[in-house]
Amino acid sequence: MDLVGACRVFVHVGERGSFTLGAAAAQVPQSVASRRIAALEEHFGARLFDRSARRAALTPFGRDMLASAKRLVQLADALEYDAEQAKLRPLGFAVPETCSLRQLAMLDAAARARSTVLDLRPAGPAARAELLRSHEVRAALLAVPPADADWTVPLGVGAATKSGPQPLRLDTLRPGRTRRSLRRLWIQPEDDVPHVRDRLEQLGHRAALAPAQITVAESLIAAVSETLRTDGFLLCSAAQAEELGLCWRPLAGATIARGYRVSAVSGDEAQRLQAGLWEQVARVVGVPMDLEES
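Structure for DNA-binding transcriptional LysR family regulator, as requested:
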């Protein structure tokens, strides 16, 4: 028996002295209201209403039970309200600073359509991990090696001028007799993580580049500025290069990628983001469409 539903009908009928009016207030047919009252009386083992009266008159037992039934209904309504409010409590979610405003807005809209309100907190890789560790957010997109990732974003290089779609060979950046200045490859803070930075530095060493040619920039703005004013390159994804107005090409003979994994305070919150919003998160971090669909 639905005890709360039965008590709700009991309260409405008892307060109005009419099965017809009480059923209407409870928004159920009169036949359903009668069955619920009968089930409640059977459950209690005593009559709630005097069936011999023309009106729905409460018995002494019914008058004694009316106040308790009303409290139960009020508590059930309060519980339902609190549950709805809890679902609307923002879920703090730390995301990369490289995410585009449009894609973040689309992620937020998709989450709200699933009754999840996000409090998006853009931050760098180390800052995201710290925000989660200190419980300042309840979930974060952590930077991890591609083998451990939920989402993988291939990296190449962006440049201010178009030089064809062919992959860039790092050995072509070596200073020569006719070119004394160093052409630099800038690493933005989002990629200042061992599985990206160390791999690129190893490739630079094999290509006989000077150590200063692969440099971690203080900020994404600084990295893009240096790329625009020189003939250097920015390590980035294809989606990010397009957003920044740079010409993108892959790296020859190298597989370098960002990896992201959702980590959360609770498993339910991680599942909501990892499974329920998989496609939206993929677009936020810049997963290429062909990889997203595969």
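The longest strand covers residues 257-264.
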